[in-house]
Design goal:
The chain has a single domain, classed as 3-Layer(aba) Sandwich (Rossmann fold), CATH 3.40.50. Helix content is 46%, strand content 19%. The chain is built from five helices and five strands, in the order βαβαβαβαβα. It has a five-stranded parallel sheet, sandwiched between helices. β4, α4 and β5 form a beta-alpha-beta unit. α2 packs parallel to α3.
Length: 120
């Protein structure tokens, strides 16, 4: 079973992400982190198969989380699920090593379209 870490400072948004994953057919073992620092610690303790992160979070932003993971040698597949999807953000995400960026509002179809190529 795929183990995922969902990082978002909004508990409601974490629940929506998890529900959308389930609706997309991904019955994953999901852990949650309330900010980037908590997510970093979670990966260090028990690296998941994939990290799904918000961009704007306290303590460590999503992009800072990704950069720290890469600096520490973690190659964990990483995707953003965020409220904005500007060209600049997509470029920054790609340069930092993110595999995808899903902008809200998102659908199970959008999740499948972004995640399937990563799992293949």
């Amino acid at each position: 079973m795929i183990r995922a870490l969902v990082a978002d400072d909004s508990r409601v948004m974490r629940q929506i992400v998890i529900r959308t994953l389930r609706q997309a057919g991904y019955d994953w073992d999901v852990r949650e982190a309330a900010d980037g620092a908590e997510a970093l610690e979670a990966v260090r303790q028990d690296e998941p198969d994939v990290v799904l992160s918000d961009w704007n979070m306290p303590n460590l932003t999503g992009i800072e989380l990704l950069q720290r993971l890469r600096q520490e040698g973690f190659g964990t597949p990483f995707g953003f699920i965020t409220s904005e999807g500007s060209a600049e953000m997509r470029e920054a995400a790609e340069q930092a090593g993110a595999l995808f960026l899903i902008a809200k509002p998102f659908t199970p179809e959008a999740f499948r379209a972004a995640i399937e190529p990563v799992l293949a």
